[in-house]
Write the structure tokens for this entry.
Amino acid sequence: MTQPFVIAVDGPAASGKGTIASRLAAHYGLPFLDTGLLYRAVGLDVLTTGGDLGDARAAEAAARALDSGRLSNDAALTSGDAGEAASRVAGYPGVRAALLDLQQAFAAQAGGAVLDGRDIGTVIAPNAQAKLFVTATPETRARRRWLQLTGRGDPITYEAMLADIQRRDERDAGRGAAPMVQADDAVLLDTTDMDIEAAFDAARRIVEAARAR
């Protein structure tokens, strides 16, 4: 049986990994899952039901009740509040365990898949044939996210956005449950000085090299 060709794209917030992963999926005709949306949805569900993001049991309950069908049409999931909530709940082992099967089932599809997140290459799909770790400087990533949010009318300042990025990086890398780290066999792609076309081209070449092995 031919093994599904899985592309794992990991990296910190606003590194460009989501755009790169979605374009790789379109290029290779593979289904795509932005796993960060799962955690954003869990975090928002806790908030909208009046729960406390500091309550691990409430977050786990929200994860187990998650309807993944809403991920593609809920604009609130792209908000700054959703990103902060996701970073909070993603540190709970119970939340990660509740979402593990869903993500691994997606990665195991017969034709292959593309997934992006923080722990795809290390936990979700450790046997993925192509692994990328996409990053950029905190200042670059903060500017990208700041331009995105202010373009939608969010009044956040660049300084606040940079502080948020740095706080989330520290939280994601320091959590005990599946911390954000580069897999030993992942290829590092630094997009600091790249536009999206250059970043996608570099990512595609990394995947092509993996496919040729």
The longest strand covers residues 130-135.
